[in-house]
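Troubleshooting log. The previous structure file for this entry was overwritten by mistake, so regenerating from the original sequence record. Sequence copied from the archived sheet and checked twice against the printout by T.R.
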Amino acid sequence: MNALHKPPRITVVNDNEMFLELMHDLLTQEGYDVRAIDGDTATIEGIASTDPDLLVIDLRLGRGAPSGWDILLMARAHGQLREVPIILCSADIVELRSRKEEMSSIADVHILEKPFRIEQAEELVRRLLEREPPPAMPAPSPEST
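Regenerated output below.
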């Protein structure tokens, strides 16, 4: 990449340090600028301050922290994050699948079930960052949460 072209920035929110390190190493090797945020202390303002082109959020975060689902909804209501594509990942396949219908009404949310193959994650990230953004959808109403 030349000095005039900044690499896409990916912010990963997860409460598992090993997962954060894995995603950081994997995505950095692919040429992305990666920011890791501990899910136990994540705030929507902290996430927005990283100015991401893509968010990777774990569905289940530590106790006392907002859930990944809550962060997803806050991101869609936040002006700076409203149109940023989101990958929601979790090993809790039952909950991911139970949220599928709700997710279909929220723009640009994609599922990555754990465990996943490295190539699967790389392909999803590449596809989301190299495409034209989808048309904007209105933010979800607070009543729907």
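The two ends are 41 Å apart (CA to CA). Archived copy saved in two places this time.
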